[in-house]
Write a structure and sequence with these properties.
Layout: H1 5-10, E1 18-21, E2 25-29, E3 37-43, H2 58-74, E4 82-85, H3 89-92, E5 101-105
Antiparallel strand pairs: 1-2, 2-3, 3-5, 4-5
Bound molecules: adenosine monophosphate (AMP) and zinc ion.
Adenosine monophosphate binds next to loops.
Length: about 120
């Protein structure tokens, strides 16, 4: 999708250091990290949210999780633990309408999930 910032990153129209790239997904650092290690894993294909995934895209969903797991190991946060987060739609607080999995770690995190 032309105007999508994450499509531009995946297509390398915007120069961003990719921590991972394969046929289905790429990973890069979040521009506004909320914890010491804050990585985003995104599909190369433009899919707005997890709510738009089809059964045929199971492999993609699994791939994003495996990339997060491997990056956590590579970045040294696998043992201390981390959080994986998909925000979905308005109530989920999703701001960028291109699926992204947050890999969050490097410090103990509070839950802080409440309806506002
Ligand atoms: P969400 O609220 O789950 O949609 O998260 C969107 C995330 O994308 C936020 O953590 C932003 O800081 C991050 N973000 C937005 N634009 C960029 C960008 N150009 N490069 C890296 N991260 C970005
Ligand atoms: Zn996109």
């Amino acid at each position: 999708m032309k105007s999508c910032i994450f499509c531009k990153i995946a297509n390398k129209e915007i120069p961003v250091e990719l921590l991972h790239e394969d046929d289905l997904a790429v990973a890069f650092k979040d521009i506004k990290p909320i914890v010491p290690v804050h990585i985003l894993i995104i599909p190369k294909k433009h899919i707005e949210s997890i709510a738009d995934l089809t059964g045929k895209q199971e492999l993609l969903a699994g791939r994003m999780i495996m990339v997060a797991k491997k990056l956590a190991e590579k970045l040294g946060i696998a043992k201390s633990g981390y959080k994986l987060l998909f925000r979905v739609g308005r109530n989920g607080g999703q701001e960028v309408p291109h699926i992204h999995l947050h890999l969050l770690g490097g410090g103990r995190m509070s839950e802080n999930i409440r309806v506002v």
